[in-house]
Specification:
The protein has 4 helices and 4 strands. It is an alpha+beta fold and 148 residues long. The chain folds into 2 domains: 21-50; 56-147, Tetrahydropterin Synthase, Chain A. Strands 1, 2, 3 and 4 form a 4-stranded antiparallel beta sheet that branches. A hairpin with a 5-residue loop joins β2 and β3 (74-84). The N and C termini lie far apart (113 Å). 11% of the residues are buried. It is found in: Cell membrane.
Length: 148
């Protein structure tokens, strides 16, 4: 078995330096990758700006319906739907009337006399109708609201 030993560098000579440009090439490659990734995100994955608000379209007025309330009372309610201008065909009002009946049936007549409660119920009805009509309804109006 033989071993080879290397002699220590002689005094006055500089140790060998690693190849120059290795770190520079690594930094340049990293910058190119970062720029390419940023450019890809900018063009392909960047979220779009806010969607423009829908513009009002036709107002669909529905015939009033009578709904049974608590304690033998009833509510006669008429509604109108503010549609967006994106509606291609005349919408069917039966979904809106069904949602209105479901929401108001069995409520207390005294609660319906309070403006805050009516406003809350209108907002709840609008949320339900936005879902049912896939965003084509942007407003609900009470055209008739009579309790007895």
């Amino acid at each position: 078995m033989s071993t080879t030993a290397t002699a220590p560098p002689a005094a006055g000579t500089a140790p060998e330096a690693p190849a120059k440009g290795g770190k520079k090439k690594l930094i340049i490659a990293a910058l190119v990758l970062l720029l390419a990734g940023g450019g890809g995100y900018w063009f392909f994955l960047k979220p779009a700006g806010p969607e423009p608000a829908p513009e009002p379209g036709e107002v669909l007025v529905l015939d009033p319906v009578q709904i049974n309330l608590e304690g033998g009372h009833y509510l006669r309610i008429g509604i109108a739907l503010q549609m967006t201008n994106n509606v291609a065909h005349a919408p069917d009002g039966s979904k809106a009337l069904d949602a209105t009946i479901d929401l108001f049936s069995g409520l207390d007549m005294a609660d319906l006399g309070k403006a805050k409660e009516r406003h809350h119920l209108k907002e709840e009805l609008l949320e339900h109708l936005e879902h049912e009509y896939h965003g084509d309804v942007m407003g609900v109006y009470f055209t008739e609201f009579v309790t007895q």
